[in-house]
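Q: Hi! New to this. If I give you a protein sequence and the SMILES for zinc ion, can you show me the bound structure?
A: Yes, paste them in.
Q: Okay, here:
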Amino acid sequence: MCARKSVVALCLLFTATASAQTLSVKWEELTAADFVQALQKSQGVCMLPFGIIEKHGPHLPLGTDLINVRYLAEQAAQKEYAVVFPAYYFGQIFEAKHEPGTVAYSAGLQLDLLQETTDEMGRNGCKKIVILNGHGGNNHLLPFFAQAQLARPHDYIVYVYQPNLNVPGRPPLKDKIDAHAGESETAHVMVSRPDLVHLDRATLESGADQQRLHLPPGLYTGIWWYARFPEHYAGEGASATQELGQFDLKTAVNEVAEVLRAVKADEEGPRLQKEFYEKSSHPLDTKQ
Ligand SMILES: [Zn+2]
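A: Thanks. Here is the predicted structure of the protein with zinc ion bound:
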């Protein structure tokens, strides 16, 4: 290809144009040179889709959260260009350690690895990092991590996002619990990786709430999830439909694309963070 000298110039032009049009959104698929272009195209916005490896009822794959969140990130980044970090599943999942296949890293390592990952992303030009959460067990970890970014200065800013699926027009759910490997999540895998759904096995275990803990509201203890859902299944996967999956993923992709646009436009976040770092290095000078 492109061997004849007479067409080299035209060919180079064509190659450059073609690669600009076809830049992958996936970090690991870009060449080093294309990565530089990708960061320019994304305006320094990168996404870290955050999954987990854990049991998902009797019928869904261990990587369900990672599979779904990466599907979402990749589709959204096609709409509003951003660079998507490779597969990341090093989150909080102690509550499923009794189930086969769960990968549960220690709490300290989770935070250190995430910090080093965002630091490395920042060093590579990702000045705005959107952590897209695909796993309910990270719901405390990720806002804490984002808050912890104020502890010392960084030249990048971290945002955390989880799509809201309860929007008008959503097909009504049959599953009253619908928390883990239930109707919604099963429906999402029916779209993202239909070949991995074993719907015929969804009733082999119970996803009903066992209600084994009797404590006042507001009193928290870590065993609450196991007390309610000992088989790491919460809801009824069997009621899932592809129609619901299509609706939800379309909603979520549009939401994430909108978030990417908002992050690109956000000048105040980085500016205020920089101002805060500067002031926090000499608090006695802060006007009282
Ligand atoms: Zn899940």
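A: The CA atoms of residues 61 and 196 lie 6 Å apart. Let me know if you'd like me to explain how to read the tokens.
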